[in-house]
Design a protein that fits this description.
Shape: globular
Number of helices: 25
Strand content: under 5%
Number of strands: 7
Largest sheet: 5 strands, parallel
Distance between the termini: 32 Å
Radius of gyration: 26 Å
Strand order of the largest sheet: 6-5-4-3-7
Helix content: 55-70%
Length: about 575
């Protein structure tokens, strides 16, 4: 038994590539190769566009996608995640390059990589969950706005030599030079934008980014359009395998780069683990956060040695990878090798790629990464959480991303303290209180075999919401109706609501029903503000456990008619342990 336990512990520390290749077969190989080539072609324009937006040559993005993309798949803890340069780093990288130069960026990336290795190796990968939803949405919104603003010059072909790094100064310069726009650049950008939107909406199997890139390049070559291209701006892209080069070490930069390195490490951890969660939901797998961060760290140590940018998990490319049929990390390695083949044999053609087409691609990326659908949901919550989001967003756009995240975390901590203290009460136990409690007790209530009851005990706030996984991990074996008892849940926040929303979506996707019952004053009020009943179902939010059981009796007959014959469950009336605790 001890040997088995030790073996399980070792398996938990291994990269997914080693674990999943044990039962590899030809069918998986074909699926992985097709997916890898597909996502490699999708990554081609994105890698160049992110590099250019960050203020560095386009090959820096490609080298990052090749080196870091391969290592993240080979050494990470997710089976289908794709790594490489992402929009989250654009703002930070641009600021680092402007202030410390390209060698400063490479030093900062190395430092961030070492931090990520330490975070993952010491088991602190799960600490990323302590960043609340309003802060994540705030800086994601802000980054999207900044990326979009950096693409205005190339989209319209404005004659501006250098675009300022600060948002207000940038927009002022662009508005001042609005009359210098180029009709050719603007037309090509609009065509590229329309192609991307049309293919994303109507021809989903063909990546719109690739179509826009090749169509724009073909128009430049055939019509000899007078537009800015990679060749006119950067002189093209070097062909061949990227050479290893040790960055110039400047001891004087170590101290000032600590803060940017922490920002890069935290952004890399957040983005990669968010992407890994998306990968889990789409593929049905479960990633190892600590192994993933070690892999991300090693990738960020190696990327600058080949002239690459910081890397993290890329949500859109990960989703493309899974939709294309990826089964194992080999798909991510093939994606990197595909890019290597492209720059080895097709690099000379890259000089014709128009900057306006890349600007159109990044505008779509910035819109998609903005999490705009989260804003209406956040605005329904408490003023404290809305304020946390707004401060993080405004500081990201008008100040600095590091300052924004620090301020957002401080505000989130204050909101956390406020919610916990506000739900702490001292009151007399009266006869009325005892009578009201009868409706909530489970004793002497019959729990039918088609119902399972879970309960949340304590505050359900950011940092503890991952415990809802205890329900999701058993979902396939649960009966058709799940009751979640909230009588002992003292407080909830935006991150907790997000977790319950995800739980409801997963339960409904499995053809089951979720009933919530017994919510106390603060959680009940916040759920009403957020119109949470829309996510659970009309009539599925009940006052107490008795009402919830009655609702289950109403739902069960219709579910029996519609359920598939393979859905089976066992009686669970005695399984009442607190599987979700605060």
């Amino acid at each position: 038994m001890r040997e088995l336990f030790a073996g399980a512990k070792v398996m938990e520390r291994l990269p997914k590539s080693l674990v999943l290749f044990r039962d590899y077969d030809r069918k998986k190989l074909v699926s992985d190769v097709i997916a890898g080539i597909t996502v490699g072609l999708v990554a081609l324009p994105l890698a160049m566009a992110f590099a250019i937006a960050s203020g560095v040559p386009p090959q820096a993005g490609l080298y990052c996608a090749i080196v870091a993309g391969f290592l993240i798949s080979a050494l990470g803890g997710s089976s289908t995640q794709i790594g490489g340069p992402t929009g989250a780093f654009v703002v930070v990288v641009f600021g680092i390059v402007a202030r410390y130069g390209i060698d400063g960026l490479f030093m900062c990336t190395l430092m961030a990589g070492a931090m990520l290795v330490v975070i993952g190796a010491t088991g602190l990968g799960t600490a990323v969950k302590f960043i609340p939803r309003p802060v994540v949405v705030g800086f994601t919104n802000g980054i999207a706005v900044i990326i979009a603003s950096t693409q205005i010059r190339d989209f319209f072909g404005l004659k501006v030599e250098k675009v300022p790094g600060e948002f207000v100064a940038r927009m002022t310069i662009l508005l001042h030079n609005a009359n210098t726009f180029s009709a050719a650049d603007t037309s090509l950008a609009v065509i590229s934008l329309l192609l991307i939107v049309v293919f994303i909406r109507y021809v989903k199997k063909i990546p719109g980014y690739i179509v826009a890139l090749f169509a724009g390049t073909a128009l430049v070559v055939t019509l000899r359009l007078p537009v800015a291209t990679i060749g006119s701006r950067f002189g093209g892209i070097p062909s061949g395998i990227p050479a290893m080069h040790i960055p110039t070490f400047r001891a004087g930069l170590l101290r000032p780069l600590i803060s940017p390195a922490i920002t890069v490490a935290m952004l890399g951890a957040i983005e990669s683990l968010m992407s890994a969660v998306v990968s889990d939901r789409m593929s049905g797998d479960r990633h190892n956060p600590n192994v993933e961060l070690v892999g991300q760290g090693i990738a960020n140590i190696m990327s600058p040695l080949f002239g690459g940018l910081p890397a993290t998990g890329a949500i859109a490319r990960t989703a493309t990878n899974i939709r294309s049929g990826a089964k194992t990390p080999l798909a991510g390695m093939v994606h990197a090798l595909t890019l290597l083949m492209v720059i080895t044999f097709v690099a000379p053609m890259a000089r014709f790629i128009p900057m306006s087409a890349l600007a159109a691609i990044l505008l779509v990326v910035s819109y998609n990464m903005g999490e705009w659908h989260e804003i209406p949901e956040l605005l329904k919550l408490s003023r404290l959480e809305v304020g946390t989001w707004l401060v993080t967003f405004l500081l990201t756009v008008f100040a600095d991303l590091t300052v924004a995240v620090e301020a957002g975390m401080i505000l989130a901590a204050l909101v956390f303290i406020h919610k916990v203290t506000a739900t702490t009460t001292v009151s007399e136990v009266t006869q009325e209180y005892v009578r009201e409690g009868y409706a909530h007790i489970l004793q002497h209530k019959e729990i039918p075999p088609y119902v399972v009851i879970f309960r949340i005990h304590g505050p359900f706030l950011f940092g503890g919401t991952d415990k809802i996984q205890e329900i999701l991990s058993r979902l396939g074996d649960l009966p058709p109706i799940v009751i979640l008892r909230l009588r002992n849940m003292t407080a909830i926040d935006a991150t907790g609501l997000q977790a319950l929303k995800h739980l409801a979506n997963e339960i409904h996707a499995s053809k089951r029903e979720l009933i919530l019952c017994g919510a106390r004053e603060q959680p009940a009020q916040l759920m009403r503000q957020a119109d949470f009943q829309e996510h659970v179902g009309c009539g599925n939010v009940r006052a107490n456990i008795g009402d919830a059981l009655n609702r289950a009796k109403e739902l069960y007959p219709s579910m029996t008619k519609n359920s598939s014959p393979e859905m089976k469950w066992g009686r669970r009336s005695t399984d009442m342990r607190p599987l979700v605790s605060g």
